[in-house]
Amino acid sequence: MTEPAATETTRAAPAGREMIRLEGVTKRYPGQDAPAVGDLTLSVRDGEIVVLLGPSGCGKTTTLRLINRLIEPTSGRILLDGEDVTRADPDRLRRRIGYVIQQVGLFPHMTIAANVGVIPRTLGWDGGRVRARVDELLDMVGLDPGTYRGRYPKELSGGQQQRVGVARALAADPPAMLMDEPFGALDPVTRERLQDHFLELQARIGKTIVLVTHDLDEALKLGDRIAILGQGARLVQYDTPAAILAEPADGFVAEFVGAGAAMRRLRLVEVGSIGLLPAGEGAPAATVRAGQSLYEALDAMLRAGAETATVLDEDGRPAGAVSWSAIVRQTPEPRP
Ligand SMILES: Nc1ncnc2c1ncn2[C@@H]1O[C@H](COP(=O)(O)OP(=O)(O)OP(=O)(O)O)[C@@H](O)[C@H]1O
């Protein structure tokens, strides 16, 4: 029996035009023998989230900061929407690229509204327009403008400050956004919630995003594509989360994705995308929605002590069933 090819729960990488391109980019810090970034070529398409993933010190942050020229390359070219920005005015460039960092970096003595409005004010927008934009942005990141506009950063939780950081980065509606460990400083529950919110937001605004993390699960969850970097920002593999888990390019990547790659892959495959069995009679012990992942189906089965789970369609009606053995067949061994 042939089953339809499984689809990923993550959004397919948009096939759009190239928005960011690094071309043979090298960065050598003074006094360092090896370059922090050595001859890196990387292309990011319009509207996709690319995650830079790799061990500590491999050059992720340096790569990110080269894109908005907080760090100047030793050699190579960086293109934004086809334009060589290596010689562009850095201030103008940074207005076209939002930047979000782990420590948020809000101005402590300024209200939330003033923080979010920094760039529009530098651009000379009038007061009314800045205010309207600030309220729109706070709303967009899930903070009630009436409640938060006049507060100071220290009066907000870490997660709320992070949302303000994102609002500020989006203020001038830049086509691209750079995010350096944006959820790194948050507790696990807040981090999960903000990641989900971030994906919902991105589904609406479709920015081109380069995000740095050293957390594999974060990379798998957020990335349309993941660039796995080795020392000196050597591009070891650049592919979708599912492809990286299924076919690690070499021993370095295999070790990085580690044991658990097959389990992690289950999170990326939708229940509804594998061939379903007919739904059984009577009340099901375990149920799962078609849009949930095989991981969640397995979890429901384990909790119910059942070997199958009934799959419900959007209206909550049984659409079929998924079995333990069908899930096992969907999970090929990663290549050694
Ligand atoms: N300003 C600097 N001067 C000299 N060397 C630097 C400077 N900044 C970074 N480096 C070196 O460049 C290399 C890459 O650093 P970078 O911060 O880009 O790595 P990273 O992958 O972001 O690391 P982490 O995950 O630990 O933040 C490291 O060896 C680091 O010590």
Any low-confidence stretches, pLDDT <50, length ≥5? 1-13
Query: What is the number of strand segments?
Result: 13
Q: Distance N terminus to C terminus?
A: 27 Å
How big a fraction of the residues is strand?
15-25%
What structural category arises from helix and sheet content? alpha/beta
Q: Any idea of the CATH class of the largest domain?
A: Alpha Beta
Q: Please describe the biggest sheet, giving its number of strands, its sense, and whether it closes into a barrel.
A: 6 strands, mixed
Oligomer: single chain
Hetero groups in this structure are: adenosine-5'-triphosphate
CA-based gyration radius: 22 Å
Report mean pLDDT, rounded to a whole number. 86
Question: What's the overall geometry?
Answer: globular
Walk across the major sheet and give the strand order. 6-7-8-3-9-10
The helix content, as a percent range, equals 25-40%
CATH domain fold name of the largest domain: Rossmann fold
Task: Assign the CATH superfamily of the largest domain.
Answer: P-loop containing nucleotide triphosphate hydrolases
The CATH architecture of the largest domain would be 3-Layer(aba) Sandwich
